[in-house]
Amino acid sequence: MNIELQAREIQPLRQTFDRVATYTGDKPASRYLEATLGAQPTEQFHYRPTWEEGFEIYDTRRTAIQLKDWNALRDPRQFYYATWAMARARQQDAMEANYQFVESRGLAQKMSDAMRAQVCTVLMPLRHVAFGGNMNNCNICSRGYGTPFTAPAMFHAMDQLGVAQYITRLGLALEEPGALEAGKNDWLGAEAWQPLRELVEDTFVLKDPVELFVAQNLALDGQLYPLVFGHYVDDHLALKGGTAVAMLTSFIPEWHAESNRWVDAVVKTAASESGHNQELLTRWYRHWADRATAALEPVARLALGDDAAPLQTEVREGLDARARKAGLAIG
């Protein structure tokens, strides 16, 4: 008996979900597009939130920014949960290798006592700045609109939590747990940290999720991380034998550079929609960037001494260039 096998190609009735095909056409879509486009609930809510009865649960009116389509705020990294988790897992493996290298060779203990103390003085209070970033991005996710905007905000919140945990782990590697308590006391009472603490606490009460996005992720983080983990840790400390600190915090500047792609894309898309959006985003940026510059001044002096002023100017000019490239009207 002979059996004849033939291959047949079966054409699917459709290539992707209807809500995705609305934007991309009926063709195969990436997992990122399927996880984000059109995923925002828009109707059939049973009741309004009791804590904010003037709005629906998901409501575009919580921000003064106006967009025809909130699905336009896409993440160029194309992060959805799986790709974000895999990327962070790879970075976690790299950080574990760094810790193993530093601990096996006793590199942290080879730093002078004065340098370890100064590193703890500068970096330990930043745990609380990162916790603030975590809370603010949770707020952006909660009050924002559109899955392409709110989902990366939640990933960013968890990344900020990771930054705080890496700083905590650094403190434990350099000093006894007392370093963490000293950092907390500095955050609460030391004169140099009070302007930054006031700025962070002021962002906690911002109601507009897009203004909060600009204040936290662009204006503050855009100056803090290049100044502290770029100029202080990677440049200043490395020249004085503090390479171990750079290795134990290497995730932070790497994450910041990667996240800038998302932050800039959101600002650029929103600003290009209308003159109203551009004017509003520019006003928010100027206000919060100026406040962040002033709040970071004593921290920069604490970290960089006489080199603080020119390096802080360089960082601010770099951030202004980013904002200008993203479409804001920065002169």
From TrEMBL:
It comes from Diaphorobacter ruginosibacter. Pfam families: Phenol_Hydrox. SUPFAM superfamilies: Ferritin-like. This is Phenol hydroxylase. Keywords: Monooxygenase, Oxidoreductase. It comes from the Bacteria. One of its GO terms (molecular function) is oxidoreductase activity, acting on paired donors, with incorporation or reduction of molecular oxygen, NAD(P)H as one donor, and incorporation of one atom of oxygen.
